[in-house]
């Protein structure tokens, strides 16, 4: 079945540590996205990538980094510079052209900083 | 004024009720309107997608867009306990939905509980 796989589902981190969240898709989508979701808030865009080896900052990129070395993979690193990293992180992908370009989301990764 | 406003609820209804979920927006350039459903601890999934104004029906779900009032609605008929989820509206001025001025803007989500 095609879809987006995020791992790990739950992650605990000590302050000062970097963590990397994995996102893999087998939908052959060009565009991939990382969102952050906090209670009572909408989805906020962290980073997005339209093609391999290219990515752009979203609205809240500070303290995060990404890479896009393969079409199917878009890992997110939460660095120690991120002041409030405890959140639910969602990876998504979409086609870049044509009709019906809906976002397909993974099941999310919940990061808790202890 | 925020670009997209959505009443966060929560909303609790008895099984079989008609549910109305609403969002207002301020950006008159928005043309693509979506409703996503998100079950607890899961990622959102697209429920309805509408381009420009008008109504769209899919089974028990109807999406309405009123661009003159900058108002969109999702109606759920004969609501079921399985409809219990958070519903997020989303909209954009253009496709593809990437960043900058073309980004997809989400409402905060409305938590719906349908009681058996």
Can you characterise this structure?
The complex is a heterodimer of chains A (114) and B (116). Chain A has 114 residues and is mostly beta strands. Chain A is built from no helices and eleven strands. In chain A, strands 2, 4, 5, 6, 9, 10 and 11 form a seven-stranded mixed beta sheet that branches. In chain A, strand 4 and strand 5 form a beta hairpin. The radius of gyration of chain A is 13 Å and the shape is globular. The model of chain A has no long low-confidence stretch (mean pLDDT 91). Chain B has 116 residues and is an all-beta fold. Chain B is built from no helices and eleven strands. In chain B, the strands form two sheets. In chain B, strands 2, 4, 5, 9, 10 and 11 form a six-stranded mixed beta sheet that branches. A five-stranded antiparallel beta sheet of chain B has the order 1-3-8-7-6, with no helix packed on it. The N and C termini of chain B lie far apart (38 Å). The interface between A and B is medium-sized, with 30 and 25 residues.
Salient structural properties:
heterodimer; A: 114 residues; mainly beta; 7-stranded mixed beta sheet; 4-stranded antiparallel beta sheet; 0% helix; globular; B: 116 residues; 6-stranded mixed beta sheet; 5-stranded antiparallel beta sheet
